[in-house]
Amino acid sequence: MTIVPVLTPPPGTGLPYGFGVALDAQVHRSRDGRLLLGGSPPRLLRLSAAAARLLADGHFTVTDRASATLARRLLDAGAAQPRPPERAPGRATVVVPVRDRADQLHRLLAGLRADPQTADLPVLVVDDGSRDPAAVADAARTHGARLLVHPHNRGPAAARNTGLRHARTPYVAFCDSDVLPEAGWLAPLLAQFADPAVALAAPRVVALPAPRPGRLDRYEEVRSPLDMGAREGPIVPLSALAYVPSAAIVVRRAAVGAGFAPTMRVAEDVDLCHRLHAAGWRLRYVPQSRVGHQHRTDLRSWLAQRAGYGTGAADLALRHPGQVPPLYSHPWSLAACALLLRGGPVPTAAAAALTAASAVRLVRRMPDADAPVRAGTLLSLSALRGTAEQLLRCATRHHWPLAAAAAACSSRARYVLLAAAVAEGLADHRRSGAALDPLTYTAIRRLDDLAYGWGVWQGAWRRRTTAPLVPRRARSRRASPTPAPPLTHSHPHPPEASA
């Protein structure tokens, strides 16, 4: 049994007066303003008449207890985004874990000192067993950073924890040595901590421009695992934004305890996000803040990195059971997809019946929608599509050894797998806007999946567990019979709950 340290919950969650919120751009609102559909994970929200009036313009500022309660519920549901008052950067320490890579460390420290927001902040460089410690020490000394040394390599988690222990400010910004923050990156992150329940804020991590970009450079520009996209939101397990990478994050020192799990060489950032969320803290992703990252683009090291990421899935699945499944969906949509894969008029009709039954259930739950039948139908079809996409991702990523075995035994399975893998790659190429031809992009995407999946199976074998390979059934929570105002009730929307 894996024992996971439990973090202390936030002392309070009340939002201060002057704290603003704005309705998320992806939320659909009924004409009377009382029914909201969206959030993270998506759910159906009903507002009281007073709450609907307060949100009539799509935004409001906390001025009393009622508005603070509404703002908190909307933020926690992911239906609204925070608009905290501007806060001058300060009271933060920058911690940089590094092992060799002195040239990149020079670049990072120079960038921090050139940014007025971080020029005077204390910087702690933690040398984690460098083979050339003198070069790291010279970089730290040149830019006025304090150097902490691990005589032997202990891993990035332990290095960050050393910096955390020596920090004396309420907030700590962790920056890996291969990043370069854009000017003004810190202020939007520190502003999130005006919410007393926020423990972590993360910027968007984007690719640094390459002098002569190759195929992998072009792919990483749009499909780096460190880039969580352009949409802001809460970081919530089993949602589209389930974690953020630790390449660059800011944390509330009082919230994270001893910090990262020192025994984890990969996925320690995902583990920290899950532990903070389980303790009741809120985590925010702020793509307005941007940090450049020097991605690996040598094929051999790139594949090794992807496989290494996959090995962390086993530890995560053991430390957080059911929170990192390869597939998370409802039984009806899984059954419908299985029937459609079988083909033929009878299975297809059965799949249509399951989808229609889901739509009927949704219509009954939102009779006050502007167009209940249309909304229920579209949501059910969207859920069916989402499950189909998850199944394809499993076949080409987590479960590709099983899919390959099935393809070897069945010509139908071989045809379906090949066609789906190519079609998904081409569709994703169109969505991504990558500066690559479609076939090259599809080939790299499949290599990405194969390497990560191989790492998942390696990790599962080492830990003697199937936990990272087991799907999870999604379940909907019913609304509370006596909910607190100003929301009259709230529950996750079943067909849209799939991650």
| Proportion of beta-strand residues | 15-25%
Annotated CATH topology of the largest domain = Spore Coat Polysaccharide Biosynthesis Protein SpsA, Chain A
Let me know the largest β-sheet. 9 strands, mixed
Terminal Cα span: 27 Å
Outline the fold blueprint.
Blueprint: E1 20-23, E2 28-29, E3 35-38, E4 43-47, H1 49-54, E5 59-61, H2 65-77, E6 80-83, E7 92-98, H3 102-114, E8 123-128, H4 133-142, E9 146-150, H5 156-166, E10 171-175, E11 179-181, H6 186-191, E12 198-207, H7 215-223, E13 233-234, E14 248-252, H8 268-278, E15 282-293, H9 299-319, E16 328-329, H10 331-342, H11 345-365, H12 372-396, H13 400-409, H14 411-432, H15 438-463, E17 472-473, E18 487-492
Parallel strand pairs: 7-8, 7-10, 8-9, 12-15, 16-17
Antiparallel strand pairs: 1-5, 1-6, 2-3, 3-4, 4-18, 10-14, 11-15, 12-14, 13-15
Helix pairs in contact: 3-4, 9-15, 10-11, 10-12, 11-12, 12-14, 13-14, 14-15
Main features:
499 residues; alpha/beta; 9-stranded mixed beta sheet; 18 strands; 17% strand; disordered C terminus
Structural write-up:
This protein is an alpha/beta fold. It has 3 domains: 20-83, no CATH class; 92-297, Spore Coat Polysaccharide Biosynthesis Protein SpsA, Chain A (Alpha-Beta Complex); 328-472, no CATH class. 43% of the residues lie in helices and 17% in strands. The protein has helices spanning 49-54, 65-77, 102-114, 133-142, 156-166, 186-191, 215-223, 268-278, 299-319, 331-342, 345-365, 372-396, 400-409, 411-432, 438-463; strands spanning 20-23, 28-29, 35-38, 43-47, 59-61, 80-83, 92-98, 123-128, 146-150, 171-175, 179-181, 198-207, 233-234, 248-252, 282-293, 328-329, 472-473, 487-492. Strands 7, 8, 9, 10, 11, 12, 13, 14 and 15 form a 9-stranded mixed β-sheet that branches. Helix 10 packs antiparallel against helix 11 and helix 10 packs across helix 12 (372-396). It is globular.
